[in-house]
Fold each of these.
Amino acid sequence: MSASSKKKLRKAEAAAKLTERQAAEQKEAKKLKTYSIIFCVVIIAMLIFALVFGISKTISNNGIMERSTTAAKIGDHEISSAEMNMFYIDAINSYGQYLTIFGVDTTKPLSQQVQDAATGTTWADYFQDVALENAKHVYTMCDLANAAGYTLPAEEQAELNSALENAEFYALMNYGYSDLESYLKAMYGNGCTEKLFIQYQQNSALAQSYYNYYPETLSYTDDQLAAFEAGKSAEYDSYTYNYYTLTVDKFLTGGTTDAEGKTTYSDEEKAAAVTAAEEAAKALTADEVATVKDLDAAIAALPFNAEVENAASTLCNDQAYNSVNSIIREWVIDDARKAGDRSYFATTSTDAEGNQTTTGYIVVMYHSTNNNEYPLVNVRHILVPFEGGTADANGNVVYSDAEKQAAQAKANDLLAQFKATDGSAAAFGELAKNNSTDPGSKDNGGLYTDVYPGQMKTAFNDWCFDETRKAGDSGLVETDLGWHVMFYDGDSETTYREFLLTNAMKQADATAWYEAALAGVTAEITNAKYIEKDLVLSAG
């Protein structure tokens, strides 16, 4: 996929939310390892987090010391205390409402709360370390971006500018500050100015943008991909099978119930339950259980399923290697596997002393392996969104049948208009430019290239990957976004397997590049005097 196509696809994902992002098995192939720190490009979310915990400080000085004192050194860069406080506060904000889950008492100074009993590290120390790592990431990526002549793309710069404008609106209109700088001082300390804050956001945005962009600069020959795949080809296949889990506790009998109603079981009773569970697993893999229908009938006949509606095995269809349960993975991917093979495997738990206990058995029926040597697709669409709608009790927009029918009627009309043309991709493209509401594709004639399975909304995806689909096909599809007038542009020259391999290799190479870049940069706190380590997050 070209860099421009990927860029358009990302834009569409953000703006129209067309992609489903539901297939967990593609996550490793599609994305680089996500950086563990949350950065503050989404400024509005940052402001809301801050107000949830009431971060607000009044410092008696005018901020000159914070701006003039070097708090940290990142390579050749000297970071002022004012800037380190922004990294520090945003490290805290990145946890949002999870702070209390991690054991932070928001009514006490962070410097008086131990985060790691073994080392004596306080939460203030911890967030200072996170802030330093954030700063190291930002300055390292900015240096590399500048050296490469990379600048923030226009659309990302526009998004950042808009976020800054919204931040000022929130500060003035929603929270009663006289101006943005007043809010920034309350949040980050008197050393913070609007100019410093804008530069901080600009640097953070550039760093993250370049980090995301770098993998797009990587490309590989067929020989390089083959060498990368060697010895691990099974990792780029997908597997279809049914499974069912039997838990030992379903087979427990007897027991002793105390006055509070709690039932405990003897070691003999527990052992008997494990034996019974294994016998049931054996029965589910017996010769007479030859089909999924047989398997599901046997599952439904289990005594504890008598009152369970639709008790049955679960189908895993074209499941990626990384998503196959590790307990059954080696069996499922074995080259010797053939359709109809059945087996069962124990599941266990380990206590603090290292003692292992059998907790159940997974019964598996294998069907097939897909080598994913089929092409990605190039498809065009015209999005006709639902209009109107009302918010339900949860704040979700719900559309009436009449509103949905109105969108369908418009989509039908557009399809009829297309069918009145010569039926070409160019004709559909013109119609899309003039009528689609999907900002990620309309300017490109509604075109998405190199679409992979599971990428788009389910109905959209199913239409694209229908095995009867051929170039020039058109039709209508409904998703929760509205109605889509569809046009199949044709098969891509890239196969799904090539896509998986390329993205996995990019992930590995980009991760190595990133780690090497950070390893070559020193980072240290030189003066923590003006870092707000005694911060109290809320009044209680």
Amino acid sequence: MAASTDGKLNISELDFAKIKENLTGFLTSQSDFVGYNFKGSSFDVLLDIMAYNTHYNSYYANMIANEMFLDSASLRNSVVARAKHLGYRPRSAQGSKAEVTLQITPTGNPSSISIPKNTQFQGSVDGVTYVWCTANSHSVNINANGIYTVAGVDLLQGIPSTFRYTANTGDPDQKYILPNANTDISTIEVSVQTSNTDTETVVYTEATDITTTNSASTIYFIDEVEDGKYEVQFGDGILGKKLANGNIVILSSLICDADITNGAKSFSVVNDVGGYSNVKITTTSDAAGGAAAADIDEIKFNAPKNFDAQNRCVTIHDYVALVKRDYGDAQAVVAWGGEDADPPIYGKVYVAIKPTSGTVLSESSKKYVRDEILAKRNIVGITPEIVDPDYMYLKIASTVKYDSGRTTNSASVLKSTVTTAITDFGDTNLKNFDKSFRYSKLIQAIDEAEVSVKSNQTSLQLKRLLYPLLGSSGAYTLPFSNQVFHPSNTFWGAVTSGKFGYVDSAGTTWDECRLQDNDGVVEVYRTSGEERIIVNNNVGKMTYLTGKMELTSFHPVSIGSESTGNTTPMEVFVTPSSSDVNPLREQIILIESNDVDITMLDDAGTGTYVEGTIATTDGTTLATGENL
């Protein structure tokens, strides 16, 4: 904006240089300073000071205005304060959780063994040792051969800490602060001791429903304050019991190490368990669920949605919002009603959670989400069920043409580069609920993988993993959830699989059998040379329109080297009708490096490369791939 030369004020500029220019223009327009050289005099220093002060104040006023709104706030304290108005408390750091079974061999033969809460164990992740504590106390009085077994022991990661405050009702500024930023407030215990001389102690509970609260309710409130710390507040004598002068407030919690402790698999005793050190520890569920405190972006995203949920589970969006708020290891969440399930199951809500660490939640983590987060806010008559994400894989086969004259990389290096480009494409564009695969985007990513790549011809299949119970006949459903290609001019269709062992009607076991479809009927076959020989002509059906495969009386006897159990997956492939693939609800599409098959074809030449067969002017033809 031009400087003012007519005595009018320019006040819309906030840049330092423009402010100074406007001040100079305003003074120049005054009769007292006509012809005055501002830049060549000491007046220039005064203009710098005035411009700096104006710029400083305008920035300060702008920041104040920004920090008053959730969308524009940039300081964590401001974001937290705005979210508080919506009834949203940011998630604290959370320690990981594990489940173990303890086998204690004591000296002597005690009638029972008591394991107090916060009994410490240790485990390591990447060579660093961390502390876990028992979440509850346990008592066992049944032993077998002198061994006392305690199953289902939950371990919470963190170091126990306790802070004590003496209430001074005459101090209006007294605060009860948990001073550690990594306090896991899901583990907090608040109790109030009457006084130094009276040790009677009352345990307080967090206020969750003020409609049932009165002046005698022993409740507390907790909110995040400055620097990521949390403050505990008590009632005022109307909404909750008021503290008396001299009461001793005791705040106990775990100080955790957040998400870096996820994945711990084995644990050992720190000192003893119930007074005994001869303890065998068997891990039932690896450590998972640890998470860092909610960051600014997460708070901004979740606070409005939490306000919509009003701390209750009514719609499926409420389930998603509450799980994201209270379970820190949830990278992605999706929910749907049982009426939308296949087949419909009324009276249930299904929640699928993709954890930040790993691919599925442990059973103990599912129980925690179901019982501690959802059950307390659920509508009566509706049962929440926590299920695993349904992973569906893409098998990519691509012939990549490149010009060796435009690169110093070898074919093997280029192959690795293209493979990485494909897996990176999957990591960026897939790996989440509601993320569809777009074929054209993948083609573009391959072409842009390296400067020498000229073109690519890429095909894909959908892959599912089936874990059949070997040696037993069973029924299995594989939902590919996309229309499957149905060729009409071939004997077999779009279904194939990895190899497995199967017994034919004559009782002969064949080790290298596969699946195929024949006009919607799924068959088991083996090969003899180029010939396909049917082993079982009907083990299920393939519904091409919906992409649903149903196996009935499927009785494999081996997969790979495994002939018992169901720990080795059997790979089943279909060719989709469309090159674009859409997941359904809880499905997540993945591209893994071992499902990527790249063939590099050097297309360097002096002429023009020909795709297909064309005719020349003299009537002769050039074969596919010949240079002109």
